[in-house]
Amino acid sequence: MPQRGLTLLELLITLVILSLLLTIGLPGFQRQIEETRTLTMTQTLQDAIQLARQRAVSRNGRVTLRPLGDWEQGWELFDDGNHNGVRDDGEHVVLTHQLPPDLGGVTISGNQPMNRAISYIGTGESRHASGTPLGGFQAGRLTICSPDQSFGYELVLARMGRMRRQTVGPEVCTN
User: Fold this and answer.
1) Is residue 117, in this structure, part of any structural domain at all?
2) Mean pLDDT, 10 residues at a time, over the chain (175 residues)?
3) 102-121 burial, b if ≥16 CB within 10 A, otherwise e?
4) 145-166 pLDDT per residue, tens
5) Do 80 and 56 meet the contact criterion of CB atoms below 8 Å apart?
6) Residues 6+ positions from 146 with CB-CB distance below 8 Å
7) Is residue 40 part of a domain?
8) Total domain count for the chain?
9) How far is C-alpha 12 from the geometric centre of its chain's CA atoms?
10) Per its UniProt record, what Pfam families does this chain match (predicted)?
11) Which residues of 53-89 are buried (b: 16+ CB within 10 A; e: fewer)?
12) By the 8 A CB rule, do 145 and 107 touch?
């Protein structure tokens, strides 16, 4: 009966080919992981903002989304009964989303109008939480950048409360 198996030479050639494929493919795989992590973070934050708007409309009252320290640490969504943008005793917390300490290098930053909080009133408009039922209109940008700062996304909040996502390049992420 003939014996079956690999010769030492065939095994070595197979290992060399496998190592070459891994060497070529691993950097591309790492890039894919970074892209997925950045997009997932963007979608998670965008979903929280959309939930804030939906809740404000459904309960016809102010709802605020604010960072836990800064946006990279996470955020909380709450019914803001006194319109001040700060969760006080007795204000219902709808959602708390804490992010892991290591986001893999993904950065999240907001411009001045979006750094402290995003707040919606009952009509679905975004308004600054300034202690009054209406407050001044709120519009701005949150920028989520990849670990290597080569690409990212911006969540752009329009005056009427609508949020859109756009892709940005290194010129935005490195600033």
Assistant:
1) yes
2) 79 90 79 88 94 95 92 92 88 89 81 89 90 82 91 91 92 83
3) ebeebbbbbeebbeebbbbb
4) 998 888 999 999 987 889 999 9
5) no
6) 34, 35, 37, 38, 105, 106, 152, 173
7) yes
8) 1
9) 45
10) GspH, N_methyl
11) bebbbeeebbbbbbbeeebbebbbbbbbeebbbebee
12) yes
Phi, psi (rounded to 5 degrees) for 157:
-95, 120
Residue 17 within any structural domain of the chain: no
How confident is the model at residue 103, as a pLDDT? 67
Q: Which domain holds residue 76?
A: 33-172
Tokens 């290194």 label which residue?
A: 170
Structure tokens at 65: 């989304």
* 164, two tokens: 């859109």
Evaluate whether 125 touches 161 at the Cβ level (below 8 Å): yes
Q: What is the DSSP string of 105-128?
A: T-EEEE-HHHHS-EEE-TTS-BB-
Amino acid at 143: T
CA distance readout (Å), 80 to 70, 105, 132, 171, 175: 19, 32, 11, 36, 33
> Cβ contacts of residue 84 below 8 Å, gap of 6+?
129, 130, 131
> In this structure, what CATH number is given to the domain that contains residue 143?
3.55.40.10
Query: Who contacts 91 (Cβ-Cβ below 8 Å, separation ≥6)?
Result: 78, 79, 80, 81, 82
The whole-number pLDDT of residue 143 equals 94
Please give the model's pTM, rounded to 2 decimal places: 0.82
